[in-house]
Amino acid sequence: MSVKITPYFNMEGNAREAIQFYEQAVGAEVLTIITYGDMPDMPNTLTDDVKNLVAHAKLRVGESELMFSDAPSGSSIPKGKQVTICISTNNVEKSKRIFEALRQDGQVNMPFEETPFSPGFGDVTDKFGVTFQIYTESQS
What we know:
alpha+beta; 8-stranded mixed beta sheet; 2,3-Dihydroxybiphenyl 1,2-Dioxygenase, domain 1; 20% helix
């Protein structure tokens, strides 16, 4: 069972621009880009601009990875949430245990649940004010 820690960049509608920048600046390789329009459970009322925003992207930089997403409304990202820490595992139960441990005396920002991009995902700010995204890699 593996556990990885990855910086996660929360963008204000310019994730694609940032991804292109990091491709050029540090030789990042795009592994995945999923838009809000690609996600099956999104409401039909989304504008084309929102549909084209990045819901989840993963880049490889050497031996490491970076993850990105745009705020779905294009709104400003609260201070302290521009870069969060993503803890990834390949086991839903392990991910849930980490999520539950970090939420003690903290704040749940998104409950741990299955999403279109992960069999187990949640977002939590721990009691020290550090925000973590707990992400379970899909098994192929």
